[in-house]
Each structure stands twice: as C-alpha cells, then as structure tokens.
Amino acid sequence: MRKNSIKNTRxxxxxxxxxxxxxxxxxxxxxxxxxxxxxxxxxxxxxKHCKAYISVxxxxxxxxxxxxxxxxxxxxxKNKIAKTINLRNTPEIHFVIDQSIAYGVSMSKKIDEVVxxxxxxxxxx
Length: 125
Fold this sequence. Notes:
By secondary structure, this protein is of the alpha+beta class. The termini are far apart. It has a single domain (6-99), classed as 2-Layer Sandwich (GMP Synthetase, Chain A, domain 3).
C-alpha cells in the first residue's frame, strides 16, 4: 500500500475520527484539556505506526500536560481503536503537538501590526 493511496487516506480519516471520539468522551485523565482536537493523523503504510497531530487551546503548559496525559493513556487508546476499527495491525500511536494554529495566529497579528503602521504613513502623504 502506497503512502498516498485511497486506502491509506481512508484509514487516516477513520483513525482520526475514532481517536477524536476517544479523547473527547472516554478518557477521564484531568491532565487532558477539554479543548483538545485531533488535527491530522498519518498512519504508516504497514499499519504499525501512527502520528497523531494534536492541537490544544490554551498556553504551552496545557499542551505539555495534555501530551503527558495522552502518552499515559496510549494503551487504552490503542485497545479502543482495535475494538472499533478492524485493521490487520493496530498502529502504535505517537502524539505530536501541532503548532500550525498558533503559528497562523501569530502571523496574522504580525500582518495586522504592519497594516496599522502603513495606514498612518499613507495619511501623512
């Protein structure tokens, strides 16, 4: 199975959906922020490993605590995925904090600052 095949894309989507449901409703760890979302999932073509990109709304400490909580619940999550999705192998999940949303917000603020600086200069001329 190739990395970008239709089958792999479907598996990625299904694992992302199930993982989001598990994090939202079944894990009771207080370290995991209630504002946690699964941004993307990349399952390896051999179905043995999976990278789950997690976005946490809040400060950096909330992200670290959520990541620690998810790592401690890896076994539970893998068991739930195995029971929900019928795959040949249940992948080992590696959680990664996704910084793209925070990066986008910071770039938007920088652009707004530059636009504010440009407008007074145009008024002077």
